Fold this sequence. Notes:
Blueprint: E1 4-5, E2 12-13, E3 17-19, E4 29-32, E5 35-38, E6 65-70, H1 72-80, E7 93-94, E8 97-98, H2 114-124, H3 135-138
Antiparallel strand pairs: 1-2, 3-6, 4-5, 7-8
Amino acid sequence: MNSTVGPPGRPLVPYITAWSSENMAQPLVITKDAGIGYADETPYDRDRDGVLWIREPSSPGRGKPQFGRVHPMRQRRAMRRLLCQVCGHPTDRNEQGVLWLLGRYRRRRPHDLPSARLRALRRTGRTRLPLAATAACAGPGPVL
């Protein structure tokens, strides 16, 4: 499911937004050999690095958007596959790389260069900055 646009007058709902239909009681967390885990853990509960993620059903578009909550599975998928967090499509690329929503670059902080951020994302799966697929998604729109 990609981003959702409601009837006229309703806002765009970004791909990573959680919906009211996606709430569930959290499973029992237990001590395991290498830390913690769910008592009834499945392969989908951890990412490829073995990090345990919160469980949440996926039913985008059902119920009301919860703009203050990010859906963990869609967020993880967007970051791992370099998808736009707004529309859910693959990010635009050109000869300079991937389109990012970036603040002002500060020369004193070379780790803030877009190329350094992309390398860090590929290496660790973590970034502080969202991806945008197209100039339309990166342009004026919802505050994310």
